[in-house]
Amino acid sequence: MSEQAVIEAKNLTKVYGGRAAVDHISFSVGRGEIFGLLGPNGAGKTTTILMLLGLTDISGGEVRVVGFDPAREPLSVKRRVGYLPDTVGFYDQMSAADNLRYTARLIGFKKAEREQKIAAALDRVGLAEQAEKRVATFSRGMRQRLGLAEILMKGAQVAILDEPTTGLDPHATSELLGVIRGFKAEGVSVLLSSHMLERVQSICDRVALFSGGKIALMGTVAELGREILGGGYVVDIEADGAGLAERLALIPGVSGVERTGIGKLRLQADRDVRPEAAAEVVAMQGRLKFLGVQEPSLDTIYTRYFERKAEQAVASKNGARHAA
Amino acid sequence: MQREGSAFAGLGVVTLKELSDHLTSVRMRVLEWLVVLVALAALYGAIQQIKDTTAEDPFLFLRLFTISRDPLPSFVSFISFLVPLMAIGLGFDAVNSEYNRRTLSRILAQPIYRDALLFGKFLAGLATLAISLLALWLLVIGLGLLLVGIPPGAEEIGRTFLFLLITIIYAGVWLALAMLFSILFRSAATAALVTLGIWLFITFIWPVLAGAAAQIIMPIDPRYASLGLPTPGTAEAEHILARLSPTTLFAEVVVAILDPTTRSLGPIYLSQMQGAVLGAPLPIGESILIAWPQTVAMIASVILLFVVGYVIFQRQEVRA
Lengths: 324, 320
Ligand SMILES: Nc1ncnc2c1ncn2[C@@H]1O[C@H](COP(=O)(O)OP(=O)(O)OP(=O)(O)O)[C@@H](O)[C@H]1O
Ligand SMILES: [Mg+2]
Hints:
heterodimer, A: Rossmann fold, Alpha-Beta Plaits, 2 domains, 4-stranded antiparallel β-sheet, B: mainly alpha, binds adenosine-5'-triphosphate
């Protein structure tokens, strides 16, 4: 795998009581990349994350995090990796800053750098005002941000976030995603798991779709779109001109044209065909009123993938019945 | 497999944090007041009793700890009763509270081993108990000086100081037990109930049960019984069984340390009595020798209970 990889997993496996919760998965996360782990409940996302951190034993396979083996060199890994658990907890009777001070001492920061780092981190996540407030008074969104502040303070090279946006309102989610983008801007790699597909899509460079402990699909959202939806770009056009639909159908990459209203057309394509479509309208001297594209949505990919799996399962069952 | 770095990285940080949590907690405040009030009551009884007795006593100061006046038990009995409660009060939610507050995985994602977390919590609990007991010890000595008016000798101070150390070890046994259950049970209430149940069993039921069990293992010899004497075998079996309880061990050590005339713990044989002047006090060194096996047994049980908890904790999943 590449020199730049900060996380590399090869055939990583975790067996709980004879059942594989994570089953021979391989993936790598590059420096400064945001990598999303997606999948239904119980797919093995959290288990994978815990193995990366050396917080649970690895049953099989190999894993390297920032060049170290989490099972043998857990301290080296944990010094360089920040972790936000799926339900992050703090010591409620202590203030936000005191909670971070405790972590900073555990990491081993000297007193002078400690205070400065804590102040900077709290400021970055917008908790500077609440620094001396007890965490007991914090909302869920504030706790999540405090968790991110801890990772910032740590100066981690990799941030591992388990469902960071679960339970947050849209505004809090946007704020949190803003902080996560900030990680990337600083060259910090991010591995995150999530159920909020739309939101994940907007920040992830690549995603891995988990299913039953295996990685079913991996790649950029566009790649997955091509693979699962066979195209996936939907271009909407509102323009007039006779015979436009026929001409648009001839554009390479367009697989279907559909009339959705008076003067309204919808194109199915495997790429963004807006420039060509606009050129066609102009060439016909038609008037272009609207031109928009819907990129393949992770939501659709996800739903479609699991629908297809269910269909295949039914089909194979029927097949088995026929054979019998 | 060789582990990287020190198992105790972060130990000091954890210990200090837990210690400050304990010292500022309401729970500790309540426990301390309970102990102080009860100790004062016992001391008051002892002082009244001492004032009423006119007999010469070379170890008057030590009597402060051991003498009782009805209906109050002696200071030592109160301590052996209350110290387990304090220790259980500090330890029953040591580990499960980290799970329940969901702080465990976040803390263990920092560059420390689980060893440091568990051992730090134990040390902090023990230090808290030691601080409270030391304060109590100073209080008793001060009050004794004021109210009895006889300055204690160096040996008496030494013996009471040994008593303090033994009490801290005894507290350690219960702390380790409470922490073991805080590892085993996710619910703090369950852990507290089970630990208190064991404490009740060991303190009140085991002594009775030990006697009954001894008679089954070593039936009473009718020849001794007809003379109104205990059967030596039965008595010995009962002693061995009773010593499985830390409370018995503690009581025996306390007798040896605070009563200088104690020559032996457990059944006394005639051979031991030969040549001994009855009632003559032993030097402090010999008292320590008599109490030594029991002390070692208590230290061993602290270590055993801690190690069992440690092994279980190492294998636990960090997820709640
Ligand atoms: N301690 C355990 N003992 C046995 N099985 C476990 C244990 N922890 C997790 N599992 C199993 O491992 C599988 C993967 O769980 P995991 O928590 O990794 O899923 P997840 O993808 O994070 O799910 P979610 O989206 O609900 O968080 C599940 O089937 C779960 O039942
Ligand atoms: Mg999970």
